[in-house]
Specification:
Pfam families: AlkZ-like (PF06224). By secondary structure, the chain is α+β, with helices and mostly antiparallel strands. About 45% of the residues lie in helices and about 20% in strands. Helix 3 (about 35-50) packs across helix 14, helix 5 (about 80-90) packs across helix 9 (about 180-195) and helix 9 (about 180-195) crosses helix 11 (about 215-225).
Length: about 350
């Protein structure tokens, strides 16, 4: 298989150019990375062409949550997918750096919150802070330690955050679903990952999930033994289908920061050239919001909101014709006002190296 067919398969499986509702978009990639809650909402809106108010109403009616999950990064995902990911990771341990050198204290405070959730299954940030802060030494940053406590409870499968939560204002909810056995959850997670991201390798899965390769390999071999394989640039990749879906990739496609097309693979060269990867992956940990023209990443876009509306700057390394610029402007006009609930008032273009 050549690189072009690989790109078509992956982008289609990820949902680019595919008509889908919100639940399908979320389950296709087993969540959307949500380090910044607004970016996850924006990405889901762009993927489904759904107004942000409609999404927020949907969050209130459906079992959708925010939580640390893959790679212990924040994700927006369905409750059942959260259960699957945490179940598959339950033999993993949080990095010691997360515990800030206070392992015993974190464990004690986690037990306190866990017991509190038995009688009160929903706690606001204000309530969590009020419970824990008096028990944290004054020389320790309380916010950081509280996060370590909540991360510990998430890793145990004890709680998650409601779908509207942000880092500044959250509600934690006691999990009522039993965790699945690892030997059940991990093969299912692998199968789902291959369906949503394939064709892929074991290294891709481990990069996306954060699960150690020694832990994942037996289940990976079990699942992929029954699936088609292909060789691309010397890599043995697994997939659920070798058929490229009908139709061309969209002329223009927008995504938000931390999109799955960037977070889902160990090797990024299939989508973006090495010289431009450092532009998309910034030094402070951000992954910029890409623009694709006919399946090619030509740069990224940034937006700023004001009372009057939203302004967009398109930063591109590929030369753009007037027709290209019109395509991008038309896509922004179509998608962005719905996603931010404000009119688009200006689009500017900036050529970068």
């Amino acid at each position: 298989m050549d690189q072009q067919k690989l790109k078509q398969l992956r982008l289609r499986h990820l949902g680019f150019g595919v008509t889908q509702d919100s639940k399908r978009a979320l389950t296709r990639t087993i969540g959307i990375q949500a380090q910044q809650a607004r970016e996850a909402d924006l990405n889901l809106s762009l993927r489904t062409h759904t107004p942000i108010e409609t999404l927020h109403n949907w969050y209130d009616q459906q079992p959708v949550v925010r939580s640390w999950a893959q790679r212990w990064t924040h994700q927006l995902l369905t409750l059942s997918d959260w259960q699957l990911v945490i179940s598959a990771r339950q033999t993993e341990t949080l990095p010691k750096t997360y515990l800030l050198g206070h392992e015993t204290l974190v464990a004690e405070l986690a037990t306190l919150i866990q017991n509190q959730l038995v009688t009160k299954p929903r706690l606001t940030k204000t309530e969590v802070v009020a419970l824990l802060t008096p028990l944290i030494p004054t020389d320790v940053k309380s916010n950081n330690l509280i996060y370590a406590v909540l991360q510990t409870l998430v890793a145990r499968g004890r709680l998650y955050f409601d779908a509207r939560s942000t880092t500044q204002n959250y509600v934690v909810i006691a999990n009522q679903l039993p965790l699945l056995p690892v030997e059940t959850a991990l093969p299912v997670l692998i199968q789902r990952y291959i369906e949503g991201f394939g064709p892929v390798s074991l290294a891709d899965f481990c990069k996306w999930s954060g699960i150690r390769i020694t832990q994942a390999r037996p289940a990976w071999q079990q699942v992929t033994a029954k699936l088609p394989h292909m060789m691309v640039a010397g890599q043995n990749l697994s997939m659920t289908t070798t058929t490229v879906p009908n139709g061309e990739l969209p002329a223009c496609q927008l995504a938000a920061r931390f999109d799955a097309c960037f977070t889902g693979y160990a090797d990024k060269n299939w989508l973006i050239t090495p010289e431009h990867q450092k532009t998309i992956w910034t030094k402070n940990g951000l992954i910029m919001a890409p623009i694709l023209l006919h399946g090619v990443v030509i740069g990224y876009w940034q937006h700023q909101q004001s009372r009057k509306g939203v302004t967009v700057t398109v930063k591109h390394w590929q030369p753009l014709t007037q027709q290209d610029k019109h395509l991008i402007e038309d896509q922004l006009v179509k998608d962005l006002p719905n996603a931010v609930s404000k009119p688009l008032i200006q689009v500017s273009f900036e050529s970068i190296s």
